[in-house]
Specification:
With 107 residues, the chain is an alpha+beta fold. Helices cover 27% and strands 13% of the residues. The chain has 2 helices and 2 strands. The radius of gyration is 17 Å and the shape is globular. The N and C termini lie far apart (35 Å). The relative contact order is 0.13.
Length: 107
């Protein structure tokens, strides 16, 4: 009998591999600047909406399943700031003002 699965139920191994990859991505790009840094730094990430939602929840210390309740527009801008004291500020989420309304779509 062939191995079948529901589209929304990934194989356990794939689930753990993807979990490790997204966690590694978060740790690589989200951190407090070292004390000797005197100027602001910026990192631009272009990612799938699921990754952005996960990163936002993780950075704000929300439960990870909270991303399921967020909808992001395609080609939108989300901005997070990590302050010198470690606090995280969500400056914008799914900002789409740079696009004409007829071109805005979401997932």
């Amino acid at each position: 009998m062939p191995l079948t699965r529901n589209f929304f139920e990934p194989f356990l191994q794939q689930f753990f591999q993807d979990s490790m990859r997204i966690e590694a991505g978060f740790r690589r790009y989200f951190y407090r600047a070292p004390p000797e840094q005197t100027e602001d730094s910026y990192t631009l990430l272009i990612a799938h909406a699921n990754v952005i939602r996960f990163f936002v929840c993780k950075a704000l210390q929300f439960p990870p399943e909270g991303w399921l309740r967020m909808s992001l527009n395609h080609a939108s801008i989300t901005q997070l700031s990590i302050l010198p004291n470690g606090n995280v500020v969500l400056r914008s989420l799914s900002e789409s003002g740079h696009m004409d309304p007829q071109f805005i779509t979401s997932i």
